[in-house]
Write a structure and sequence with these properties.
The complex is a heterotrimer.
Chain A: H1 2-24, E1 34-38, E2 41-42, E3 46-48, E4 53-54, H2 56-67, E5 75-79, H3 85-90, E6 96-97, H4 105-108, E7 111-120, E8 122-127, E9 143-147, H5 152-159, E10 165-169, H6 172-180, E11 186-190, H7 191-198, E12 207-209, E13 217-224, H8 230-242, H9 245-254
Parallel strand pairs in A: 1-5, 1-6, 9-10, 9-11
Antiparallel strand pairs in A: 2-3, 3-4, 7-13, 8-11, 8-12
Chain B: H1 3-13, H2 16-45, H3 50-64, H4 68-82, H5 91-119, H6 124-132, H7 137-152, H8 154-167, H9 179-189, H10 194-222
Helix pairs in contact in B: 2-3, 2-5, 3-5, 4-5, 5-7, 5-8, 6-7, 8-10, 9-10
Chain C: H1 13-43, H2 58-94, H3 99-114, H4 117-128, H5 139-165, H6 169-177, H7 182-212, H8 224-234, H9 237-267
The chains are: A alpha/beta, B mainly alpha, C mainly alpha.
Transmembrane segments (chain B): 20-44, 65-83, 95-115, 193-219
Domain ABC transmembrane type-1 (chain B): 20-216
Membrane topology (chain B): Multi-pass membrane protein
């Protein structure tokens, strides 16, 4: 009786430990795979839709991985929320991050960047029929939506329109629902994210960007500090621009939003030093 | 950086007290409305009228088995966005009111059950005595049963209040900028002091919740009906 | 007061008439509320068939609702197992004759019971990301399970403690007089009885666990609410959320019914009931 109980207990403990370690053993990975960090919740940029992954960042990452010698089925996509990106690189949980990752001096202290592969700027997304919002100065008294934890909407309140109302929802997809229903007047974040949103599924053709960007964000490919891959990736970015793939990825993922990338800054030359 | 420095940096950079103040306000208003709704539903559930009993029972069973998070999401994404319902002309106040409404609706079910468990502590003889001097259902409930039941229900009501206090963090799902939203933001920008951030918010709730528990225990002893 | 009917007499003709009137009023109120909601929905164009049709497609269930439901059940099930383990360990710790163990367990349990589950989930989600312990893709899942375990485990620890305390004193005395150590008395005599007594309360705690998995949506865990929201964003939010809520209600109602049945069945076997 006692013996049987022990066996049951031991089996249970084993089952729990087994379950835990199985779930976490994916981290190791073999040499023939590459782990790439992307966002999972940004339609048009990095999005997991139950069966697969889509978006501009996903296309860029797939191309770069191809140049590094990895076929698409050798890529392991890893979700990398903004707050975790630096740590995931320094802990070697991912080999690179392509997730709307702006190159900043503060970040350069803990990670290496290749790129930029895109220069984005903060913009506004409004309904297609909207005629009175042309830029951030027109937002006084208007209702704005942004995502909890992001600074883009706070920036607008600080610099351009003190009297704008701000609602913070859990994801951009929730914001765009409120925009479609006319409960908010504008959605604000980087232009490529907005364009990506406005070009997915049923959103196509319903929204437009004002085209008045008022910040500059250089998206880079995040790499672990001291990596040797940086020059190779810089070269891959250049060839992506040269062979037309870059433009194809942009237009494919922003189709139907009327978006045109800022031609002064794009396509960018990969200028990061690759120390 | 010592822990003391980390905490003072957090308190200097962020309005932590302000964020908790939002939770306290949510708790206060939701407690008031949840108690009112809960008392009415409890009355319905013990009333002689079958249809009211049915209605009260259905309310409790449906609400108690629905996650609060769904109610919050429903408030913003379905009621506000899709159905164009607003609870205030002021943009910000509207979300606060939605959060209070959903917290009240949800916790009213628990208040109702707390009051009912209080009713169960009232001896049968009390109701029989009340009826024998000719009181009807409502006077019996109002004058004899409820005053004793509330005193017997202090402990479960206190537990419901504590649960409500903690559940105000779910208002994040209804776009109310309370403590958990601020915590997320702080970790995003100051992830090097993540432990200090967690302890700030965890201890904040401990400081709010533990006195409520102590007061509840004290009150339930002080006002216990001696039998 | 055990029977509801103690609050009112067996009804005479006048009371019966009154009840009938109230019944009609009550029914009218219910019908009125339902009508009001329907009119409101209709006016907002929410009742048209194409706002509901997407709920009955195979795609919606195969790609969203069922995987979401699986996410919810998976997290809830693991959290149930781990919280029971946690609750037993810390509940026994709080009953330990050794002072320091008892104090540590008391502080841990009281602390964890006071911290909102959501705060714990957000913390673990982002803190575990700072370590390299877990595959980042599983972070939300582990954060949900850990948060649920620590909170509900503490509640269960309290249940264990109060369950043991409410046993008749003779039980432990009889054990001690047989020459068992206090640890053996706890393990072999008190705990098995306390577990039976706390079963109904335990099952209603499982309902809490299941409901709180929905908080996982805030930290991007793919559960039922998250699935409903994705589906709603593509089609119609209100309708998708109603279905998710109904699924939760049905599962929880089943659990509650089981708890009630068990409580009635067990009340014949033990005289005590564990309470927090």
């Amino acid at each position: 009786m006692r013996h049987r109980k022990r066996v049951v207990l031991r089996a249970l403990a084993l089952a729990i430990i087994g379950c835990l370690s199985l779930a976490s053993c994916g981290v190791g990975g073999s040499d023939h795979r590459i782990r790439i960090g992307i966002k999972f919740d940004q339609p048009g940029l990095g999005y997991q839709d139950g069966t697969g992954y889509s978006g501009f960042d996903v296309d860029v990452a797939t191309y770069l991985a191809g140049k590094l010698g990895y076929s698409p089925d050798q890529i392991e996509w890893v979700q990398s929320p903004s707050a975790n990106r630096e740590n995931m690189l320094s802990n070697h949980q991912v080999d690179m991050i392509v997730a709307t990752y702006s190159i900043t001096d503060k970040r350069k202290k803990s990670v290496d960047f290749a790129g930029p592969y895109f220069v984005a700027g903060q913009d506004l997304l409004v309904q297609k029929s909207n005629a009175d919002i042309h830029g951030p100065d027109d937002l006084n008294g208007k209702n704005l939506c942004s995502v909890q934890g992001s600074t883009s909407a706070a920036k607008i309140k600080e610099k351009y329109a003190e009297n704008a109302n701000l609602v913070e929802l859990n994801s951009y997809a929730e914001c765009i629902g409120a925009l479609e229903a006319g409960r908010i007047d504008a959605l604000t974040t980087d232009d490529i994210i907005l364009a990506g949103l406005a070009s997915t599924g049923t959103n196509k053709g319903k929204f437009k960007l004002t085209g008045q960007t008022f910040t500059e964000e250089k998206y880079g490919v995040g790499l672990p500090k001291g990596t040797t891959r940086c020059p190779e990736i810089s070269k891959a970015i250049t060839s992506m621009v040269d062979d037309g793939s870059w433009e194809k990825f942009v237009s494919k993922n922003t189709e139907g939003s009327g978006y045109e990338f800022d031609a002064k800054a794009n396509p960018p030359k990969p200028t990061e030093g690759c120390a | 950086m010592s822990y003391f420095d980390q905490f003072s940096r957090l308190f200097a950079d962020y309005d932590v007290v302000g964020a908790f103040w939002v939770n306290i306000q949510l708790t206060f208003w939701a407690a008031v409305f949840a108690f009112l709704i809960g008392a009415v539903v409890a009355l319905m559930r013990i009333s002689p009228v079958p249809s009211l009993r049915l209605l009260g029972g259905a309310y409790v069973h449906i609400v108690r088995n629905t996650p609060l998070t769904i109610l919050m999401v429903m408030a913003v994404l379905a009621l506000w966005t899709q159905m164009h319902i607003t609870l205030s002309t002021d943009f910000k106040q509207n979300f606060f009111n939605f959060a209070v409404a959903m917290l009240s609706i949800y916790h009213a079910a628990f208040v109702c059950e707390a009051i009912r468990s209080g009713v169960n502590t009232v001896p049968l003889g009390q109701a029989e005595a009340a009826r024998s001097i000719g009181l009807g259902f409502l006077p019996t409930a109002r004058l004899i049963i409820f005053p004793q039941a509330i005193r017997g229900a202090i402990t479960p009501l206190g537990n419901a209040l504590i649960a409500l206090t903690k559940n105000t963090t779910v208002a994040a799902a209804a776009s109310v900028a309370e403590a958990s939203v601020m915590m997320k933001k702080m970790i995003e920008f100051d992830s090097d002091v993540i432990f200090a951030i967690f302890m700030t918010f965890a201890l904040g709730f401990v400081i709010i919740v533990i006195p409520v528990g102590l007061i509840t225990t004290w009150a339930s002893r002080k006002w216990a009906v001696k039998r | 007061m055990s029977t509801q009917n103690a609050l009112f007499d067996a009804q005479g003709p006048r009371a019966k008439r009154l009840t009938r009137v109230f019944n009609i009023i009550g029914a009218l109120v219910i019908a009125g509320i339902i009508l009001l909601v329907l009119v409101r929905l209709e006016r907002q164009d929410q009742l048209t068939w194409d706002r509901w049709a997407f709920l009955f497609t195979g795609d919606a269930w195969a790609h969203l609702f069922l995987p979401g439901l699986w996410g919810t059940l998976k997290a809830a099930f693991l959290a149930v197992v781990t919280s029971v383990v946690f609750g037993l360990v810390f509940g026994m710790g709080r009953l330990s004759p050794i002072g320091p163990i008892r104090w540590v367990c008391t502080v841990v349990v009281e602390f964890l019971r006071a911290v909102p589950v959501l705060i714990m989930m957000i913390f673990f989600w982002l803190w575990l990301g700072h370590t390299s312990l877990i595959n980042p893709n599983h972070l939300p899942f582990f954060a949900v399970v850990l948060g649920l375990t620590l909170y509900n485990g503490s509640v269960i620890a309290e249940l264990v403690r109060s369950g043991v305390h409410q046993l008749p004193k003779g039980q432990s005395e009889a054990g001690l007089s047989l020459g068992l150590s206090s640890g053996q008395v706890l393990r072999m005599i008190q705990l098995p009885q306390a577990l039976v007594a706390m079963m109904p309360a335990l099952l209603s705690q499982f309902v809490v666990i299941l409901k709180d998995t929905a908080l996982g949506y805030i930290i991007t865990y793919g559960e039922l609410l998250d699935a409903a929201k994705r589906l709603g964003a593509a089609h119609s939010m209100l309708q998708a959320l109603i279905v998710a809520a109904m699924l939760f209600i049905v599962i929880n109602a089943l659990l509650t019914t089981l708890a009630q049945w068990l409580s009635r069945y067990l009340s014949h076997r033990v005289g005590v009931r564990a309470k927090v």
